[in-house]
Amino acid sequence: MKKAFIAAMAAMLASASAAAAQDTSATAAYGSVRLNSGFTPDPHSISLTAGGSIDASRIGSPCQGSIANAPDYEVTYSAGSLPLYIYVNASSDTTLVVNGPDGQWYCDDDSNGGVNPQVTFNSPRSGTYDIWVGTYGGGTAQATLHISELAEDDGSDWEPDNSSMPDASMRATYGEITLRSGFTPDPHRIGLTAGGQVPASNVSSACAGSIATAPDYQVTYTSGSFPLVFRTEASSDTTLVVNGPDGQWYCNDDGWHSNNAQVRFDKPSSGVYDIWVGTYGGGTTPATLLVTETP
After folding, report:
1. What does the CA dihedral 180, 192, 232, 220 come to, rounded to 10 degrees?
2. What CA–CA distance (Å, rounded) separates 24 from 251?
3. For residues 100 and 131, is the Cβ–Cβ distance under 8 A?
């Protein structure tokens, strides 16, 4: 009788510990989306604050990091013939915890290169994916969550289109925004896929990498007393090409941390900034574009 009581108490404690680590029934803190296989734009990207007060290792190995109680994001997915990739880009060490449609837990720390995590479903099921983005060292960090059906292209079969030029008159692939000096939140973050078939050197010998024909993003900016800075975050080597309100081209390769790029306007003009995020070695890679007035 005593043994049975102890066993029952142990089961209750184990259940309570698991429940404390995550709550799939809670409303996702940064929203939800329905995606059908073949969705565009790909990747679907969400800026969020990673981390929380709960130790993800309570779920079991190989889960790591500090997560929140409620999911950060929820994806209801209709599967097709493509794989499903869930991954994060951040300047801090982040982790992933995913509860799949089968009720199982899938976790990762560094599979997306550097300190970025990725959970891959080669034959994904249709249904709900609840997603937590954790921080490996505790606390919180700014991060971008990406949902994609496209594997990263390492550029091994990339062929440049030497006859093409980027076209600032085309509609930006990942959208556009109007910002006034003093905008919040700062930085403004956009998840996208960097790269293309146009050599950035077609614009100028000072420009590096491969870019798309259409801009990746467009910012209509009203200037004030602050500088305007464009930066990239990615696990691969990225570049920047910006066409400013004056019609001039501004480029950079490694002006930000590690292999990330930065173009800075100390006294920016008001007007339209068309922005391309390139890959130094060809091919494509997931990346995050940051627009900031913080030096």
Report:
1. -20
2. 44
3. no
CA distances from 74 to 3, 37, 164, 234 (A): 41, 16, 40, 23
Task: Quote the CA–CA distance of 189 and 233 in Å, as a whole number.
Answer: 10
Q: Residue 182: what residue type? A: G
| SS3 state at 19 | helix
Confirm if 48 and 143 have CB atoms less than 8 A apart: yes
Element (H, E) at 8: helix 2-21
Average pLDDT over the chain reads 88
Burial class (CB in 10 A: 0-12, 13-18, 19+), 171: exposed
Q: Could you give phi then psi for residue 293, rounded to 5 degrees?
A: -110, 10
Q: Confidence band (pLDDT; 50, 70, 90) for 153?
A: low
Task: Please answer whether residues 83 and 149 qualify as being in contact, where contact means their C-beta atoms are separated by less than 8 angstroms.
Answer: yes
* 105 contacts 63 by C-beta, under 8 angstroms: yes
Q: What is the pLDDT of residues 97-137, one digit of tens each?
A: 999 999 999 999 988 877 889 999 999 999 999 999 999 98
Distance of CA 209 to the CA centre of its chain: 20
Q: How do residues 40-88 score in pLDDT, each as one tens digit? A: 888 898 999 999 999 999 998 899 999 999 999 999 999 998 899 999 9
Angle at 216 between CA 212 and CA 221, to 5 degrees: 140
Distance CA 57, CA 66 (A): 9
DSSP code of residue 62? T
Q: Is the previous residue joined to 199 through a cis bond, with omega within 30 degrees of 0?
A: no
